[in-house]
Amino acid sequence: MKKRLLDFLACPECGGMFDLKVAAMEDLEIKEGCLFCKNCGKAFPIKDFIPRFIETDRYLDSFSFEWNMFRDVQIDILNNTRESEETFQYKTGFKETEVRGKVFLDAGIGAGRFAEIVSRWGGEVIGFDLSFAVDAAYKNIGKRPNVHIVQADIFEPPFKKESFDHMYSIGVLHHTPDTKKAFASLVPFLKKGGDFAVFIYEKGIYHRYSDLWRKITVKLPLRAVYILSAVAIPLYYIHKIPFLGPALQFAFPTANWPKWKWRWLDTFDWYTPKYQWKHTYPEVYNWYVENGFRDVDLFDYPVCMRGKKG
User: Bridge partners of 150?
Assistant: First the structure.
């Protein structure tokens, strides 16, 4: 943890400020230590460079497993691609000129896929996640001076109100017990005039069969689904067969990325999370309106939206 992070942190219990106790330093970062709330006295550990505001990953154990198994798959700089950069642009609408010099909150950092883009573009990013994916994110990008990583619950974010210039949450909110509540829980931490961009799974008939399969897969051991998900690797070629391929893809959907590791990762990602809600554009748009946003933009990829806090 970098001491700069204290400028953004507040007790999730009472909103109080923290005293810092350092037990071990490494390369100018706090490796081990503790945060003590000056108001309520609650203590939170810093372990392996990351302040921890939760004790377990609760309903996100699949993501803890996933992002530590597939830690480097979607990180552009580790794969010599621009895939994540392009995805970040069309799902949020943020341009490099809007990012430079700004402070961003990444709600659901995962392995650091999009935080890597923000930091490389010259923004400062505070990324948090309930899962132990934060450990993978730290290995990927945590040493960068403009990256801060926190393990925390999206329903109890440990941040000061109106601390961030902009926020985004890409493919995360729908994996919580309540997507709408998760959205609203983040709003107080955005500065007035700041933008909040989200990507949320769209509700549609094409999820019918995958949702049926998920009733089985979410009950299986994660390692078993990890192995079974590898079927997406050869199915990519079968899906190219006329008639048979599309029919099989509809009945048993798997990821169709050209890169085999991406197919394996995204198929595992689809079939393991405990929660996976789907929503419509009108639903998400109404969340923006109800929370006082204006100038709400709807992007082509469903459901991607961005609004400015009034």
Answer: 128
